[in-house]
Structure formats: C-alpha cells, structure tokens
Design brief:
The chain is α/β, with parallel strands linked by helices. The protein contains 29 helices and 19 strands. The protein is globular, with a radius of gyration of 29 Å.
C-alpha cells in the first residue's frame, strides 16, 4: 500500500483513508494507493469500501506539482473506471472540498455522503481544460443535463445542500467523515443495497447542445474550454454507450490540453500565486495594522474604506466639510448594503460596520491612533502634498502613510513629510471594494517593513498585490496609456472607434478603449494629457479628436455622451454620430489621408503596443518580472485570463514576429514604435518572457 492511502478493515468494510496533506491532492502516490486499496479489498473478502480524507478535506483536486509534467500511471480516468467497476459497494464520505478529480472519484463511487459544510465542483474549465476522468459523463447522469452543464461550464463550487438537491450526493450527516461513512456503508450492507454504478445508469436527456455551445462561447468572450465541455456533455447524452462517451471526453480533453488557452490559464494560475512572493521581503515582518484611515470619501475613498471594513479593519475617514462627510458615509453604507443584499454580510455585521467600525470626521486629529492611512484625494500634486503635510503632523510615529495616486511621483509626495521611509503608494482600482488588483508602489526611501505592510494589507483585503517602481502611471496605467495611444492613432489614420472597440472585445476584453474611456470619464484622461503637454516630445503624434469631444463638454457616461450616447434606462451606449465629423476635422487639420484597416491589423497594432510598452516596463525594472505585468493587466484592466496576460500572449504568438511588426510600424511613426530593448534582446537570444519569470 502507498503511504498516501491507509488501509483498514472494519468488519466487512475496507476503509481507505487519504493522508496526503495539506489537501489530499490526487498525486501519483494517492492514485496508486487507491488502486491498491480497491484490489486488496477485493482479495480480502470485504463487501464494501469506504473512501475518505484525513485532515481538513476529501480530495481537493489534482496535484498542481504535476502540472506540465508527463502523467504517471495509474491515470485518473482509468482509476475512476476501476473504482466504479469493482463488485464491492464503494462509499465516498466527503468533507472540506471535493473538486475536479476529487468529485470525479466520488462520482465513480456507488454512494456518496457529505458533512453539511462540504463543497464540491468541477472547476477544470478555469484551467483551460474540462473534467477528463468521467466527470462530463457521470455528472449529467446523476444531476441531469442542464444542472451538469451549468456546473461544468462555470466551474462553480456548490454546497452539500445543493449537491443533495441535484442528486449528486445521497445523504448529508453531521460528524467525522470516517464515522458517518462507516455508518452509511454498514446501513447499505444491512439493507442488501445494490451496487449502483453511475456509468450503468441511463444516458441523460439531450438538449439543444448547439444553442448551449454558442451561448457559452459568447458568455466566455472566446474562452474555449467551457464551450468544448458542452460537447463532452453532449456525448454523455448522444454517444452509443457510456464507454463511447468516455472516449469522446478524452479526445476533447486532449484537444484542450494542446491549446494555447490552456497554457495561458495555467500561467495565470501559477502567476497569481507567485506575484506576491518577493525575495526582498524574506524575513521582513510587516508593521501591525489594527486600524486604518482614509482621506477623501469620493468613489475611490469610499471603496477603499468599504474594502477595509469588510476585512475587519476599523476605519476613520476624513472629508473637508460636514456635507462631504455625510455624502461619504452614504456611499460606504450603499456599498455595504450591496454586500448585505448579496449575503456577504449579515444585518448584524452591517450595523456594526456602519456603526462602531466607521468614523467619519473633518478634523485630521481623528487620525492620531490609526496604523495606516490611505490618501485618495484629487489627482493633483499640490493637493496631495498638502494632505501629506497634515498627515505628517497628526499621525503617530510609525504609521504607514500611503497615497492612492494613479500617476504622480510618490517620491515627490513623500518629500512633503519628515518621514519618507513611512510613505508608500497603494494604487487601488475602482471600485476598490470590488476590483482585485492593488499596485504597491515603492518610493526611494520606503522602508522594507513598510513595503511588507503594503503586501500584508493587500492579502488581508484579498487583493492580488503587485510591486511597482515609480514612473508616470506605474505598471498598468503606463501600459494602458501606450495601447490607448495606438488605438487613437489607428482611428486618426482611418479606422473608427467602434471598429476598435469591437475588435478588442472580440479578443476577450470586457470593453474596448473608447467605451472604457466613456465609463471612466474622458475628462480624467484629458486632465492627464494637459498635465503632460508641457513636457511632450515634439516628435509625438497627438490626435485631437479626443480633446475636441471634451472641449464640447462630452465626458462619457457621466454627461450622457462621449464616444457613445447613453440614454437613461438603456444598458450601454450607441455610437455618437458627432464623433465621425470630429475625426474628419482632425484628419484634415493634420493632413492625414484616411485608409481602411482590417480587424486583424487593428488588433495586432493594439497588442504590439501593449507588449512593447510592457517590455519597457520590465526592462526598466518598474515591474520586476513579466508575470507582474501579466497579473496587473489581468486583474486591473480586463485582459482575458485565457491568454495569461500580454507577455504570455506574446510568447505564445512568437516574439520574433511581434518585433518584426513593431519595426515595420516604426517606418511610419518611428517615435511611438521604438522597439523595447528587452524585446530585442530576447529575440536575439531566442528566449521568451517566461524565461525571465523562471530566472533562466
């Protein structure tokens, strides 16, 4: 027997206990142990087998240490078939989580019991694959086709109560999994219950699988795995036999295994876990943060305060007037009401968070006891330096002073205090209580324990936290500024904003750059343009149609009109008919002869600009690794997860082709399309961005 599976006889029942901490992942030793345990139980004369997990969970899924390596026998599909085929009655007792292969093992068992707190699901589509050990064939037979399609295509985890309602499990019992499993197995034997193999059950009913496939592909914005999983479930309903369905599942599984999207999703999976692990913080303890201050109660400040409150941190929020303070409290209460409505918090918690935990004041003296304060006021250096002067005067020694600036120099802000070592940038993304990204911006004099505190806060707030150096826009906004320029250039040269947005959403982004500008407020970028104008290089092309819109008072959704027109009660906008004339006027003034662009060229220019600027950000050390850029773009800017991020996408496309295109575009605009030195170096050496993540 494998050490990962312990074997025990209790009367007529062979007990197989998984002991592969921390999550009983289905690694090769566990698979070998399960196979050996079934074979031994058959030889021992047992009448039933109980499978359960020691510790905090049943099998929580595959062993991530095996990802990307050649599979070792026994493979999980064959193991599940072998468990199902045994003449003994097999019972799985579940607690913790039964996910992916874990749920597939349970479905291969003949009976299933779970504790009330157990969760289960088939989340494989989130890794670019589908359940490949019979999950797409067995789940529809017990839960029905529609329920199985919903679970498999979303990867959603469900509760034990929902699993019982769907017929996925047979019983819920309080108690230790070993005890409830043994009692259930003994009861089944006493009743003379039949062996009940899911694979021998009737095929599930067919639905309009073509319609489901198209709807799933559209909902996933081009992600293949959920849609391909629909075809696997279709095989469960339409294949001539259960074995034929399993064969079809395996074919589709292998197709996805070979796809670029699987590589992108696996990259995203591992990078999300690696991004907050910084060698420079090894052995550095963060400062204790038991309370938090927020300066400014607008949308951003209220969102930051909400996120802190939901993480259990008391908040002191400072506004300039009593009226503004009351409005800020109203915004925070509105955010928390949303959490209450969604069941994230109870009424009692809501009352506590909006009562004792939240203080709204107009006097900076109220911040005297907080451990960390985040400034979220207007994006103006003079205003921010004034705020930091007040924080320096009122905050206790050792308090972390953070700015939420999106673009401004954190060193210059820190210089407004007598303690620059305590100053750091914490760039949240709006709405801050929803968006998962947090850029931690390190200033020249930021103390290591202050950096560690920023990362500890990010973890507490359940953010994906990324380290950034100082430049205009840090990682994300600097890159966004470049690809937004590329979009504007292609429009100035003849494409339409609506073609660009359509191409970009077709690639997988939730919004195109012009619709996104309308949502954020065109006046915000307009202000940044005006700020940069005095130092702008004379070689830079400057499309003017954007400014023309703003000069006419059209700032996007907030004014009802921007690149799109927004009508009350109608979702989304329709193209603004006035925009074409503004673009034509700009072209005439700049002597541009417009031409047509194919969708493929629009996308290629947009993506090459993103990759090129991202390579500069990494090459300059603003981002330490390519994966840092990828996580910023995934979690802050809606980059499609199934491509892994812009630099993973670039690796998959081929860096030599991207560099060749950038050099070709440079023939028409040598200033904007300057190839990143790092990109040129990687191509010359035949390496990829991912090689830098691995340190090779």
């Amino acid at each position: 027997m494998s050490e990962a599976i312990a074997y025990e006889r209790v009367g007529d029942i062979a007990v197989l206990k998984a002991q592969n901490p921390p999550v009983n992942a289905l690694g090769v030793d566990v698979r070998k142990g399960l196979l050996a345990g079934i074979e031994r139980a058959e030889q021992d004369g047992a009448k039933a087998v109980l499978i359960y997990g020691e510790g905090k969970t049943y099998f929580a899924g595959a062993d991530i240490r095996e990802f990307g390596k050649p599979p070792q026998e026994p493979w999980l599909p064959g193991l599940c078939s072998r468990i199902e085929a045994t003449p003994l009655i097999v019972v799985s007792a579940m607690h913790g989580t039964a996910l992916g292969g874990g749920l597939e093992v349970a479905l291969a068992s003949h009976y299933r019991i779970a504790v009330p707190s157990a969760k289960m699901g088939l989340p494989e589509v989130n890794l670019g694959i589908l359940p490949g050990a019979g999950g797409t064939q067995r789940l529809p037979r017990v839960a029905g086709t529609e329920a199985a399609l919903e679970m498999i295509t979303t990867g959603r985890h469900i509760s034990a109560a929902e699993a019982l309602e769907k017929g996925i499990i047979d019983r819920i019992e309080d108690g230790a999994p070993r005890e409830i499993g043994l009692a259930y197995a003994q009861e089944l034997l006493a009743q003379g219950a039949p062996r009940r193999a899911v694979g021998e059950m009737p095929a599930p009913e067919a639905v309009d699988f073509d319609a489901v496939y198209e709807a799933t592909l559209k909902k996933g914005r081009g992600q293949l795995s959920p849609a391909v999983a629909v075809r696997a479930v279709q095989a469960a309903a339409e294949a001539e036999s259960f074995e034929a369905g399993l064969k079809r599942e395996r074919e589709l599984f292998m197709e996805l295994m070979d796809s670029d999207q699987r590589q992108g999703l696996i990259h995203a999976f591992f990078s999300e876990r690696a991004v907050s692990k910084l060698p420079e913080l090894d052995g550095v303890a963060p400062r204790d943060v038991a309370s938090m201050g927020v300066i400014g109660g607008g949308t951003m400040g209220a969102g930051i305060a909400t996120a802190a409150l939901l993480a259990g941190l008391p908040v002191v929020l400072i506004e300039m007037t009593d009226e503004a303070a009351a409005a800020a409290r109203g915004r925070i209460e509105g955010n928390l009401k949303g959490a209450l409505k969604r069941g994230k918090i109870s009424q009692e918690q809501y009352d506590q968070l909006t009562g004792d935990a939240l203080t709204v004041a107009t006097d900076y003296a109220a911040l005297s006891a907080v451990d960390l304060v985040v400034e979220a006021v207007f994006e103006d250096m003079g205003v921010k330096r004034e705020v930091f002067g007040k924080l320096d005067a009122h905050c206790k020694p050792g308090a972390v002073l953070a700015t939420n600036t999106s673009y401004l120099d954190v060193d210059e802000i820190a210089a407004a205090t007598s303690r620059p070592q305590d100053v750091i940038g914490l760039h949240f993304f709006s709405p801050a209580h929803v968006m998962k990204l947090l850029e931690v911006v390190v200033a020249e004099k930021t103390a290591p324990e202050v950096l560690a505190t920023g990362f500890a806060l990010g973890k507490r707030l359940k953010k994906v936290t990324v380290r950034s150096g100082i430049c205009d826009g840090f990682i994300g906004n600097r890159i966004m500024n470049a690809y937004r320029k590329a979009a504007e250039y292609v429009v100035l040269d003849g494409a339409s904003p609506y073609q660009v947005d359509k191409v970009v959403t077709g690639f997988g982004f939730p919004m195109g750059p012009f619709a996104m500008g309308d949502l954020a407020g065109l006046d915000i970028n307009w202000a940044a343009r005006k700020r940069r104008a005095p130092t702008r290089d004379p070689r830079e092309r400057v499309p003017r149609f954007y400014e023309m819109l703003c000069e006419g008072g059209d700032f996007g959704q907030k004014t009802g009109k921007g690149f799109y027109v927004y009508e009350e009660g109608r979702r989304g906008g329709v193209p603004n008919p006035e925009v074409a004339a503004l673009i034509a006027k700009d072209q005439e003034q700049q002597g541009v002869s417009p031409r047509e662009f194919s969708d493929a060229e629009v996308l290629r220019r947009y993506m090459c600009a993103m990759v090129n600027e991202a390579a500069k950000v990494v090459g300059e050390g603003i981002a330490r690794r390519p994966l840092d850029v990828d996580m910023v773009m995934l979690f802050g800017y809606g980059f499609p997860r199934f491509w892994g991020g812009p630099l993973k996408w670039a690796d998959l496309q081929g860096l030599d082709g991207i560099l060749a295109d950038i050099r070709a575009y440079a023939a028409e605009d040598g200033f904007f399309w300057q190839p990143a030195p790092l990109l040129e170096q990687l191509v010359a050496e035949g390496r990829t961005f991912d090689s830098l993540n691995k340190g090779s």
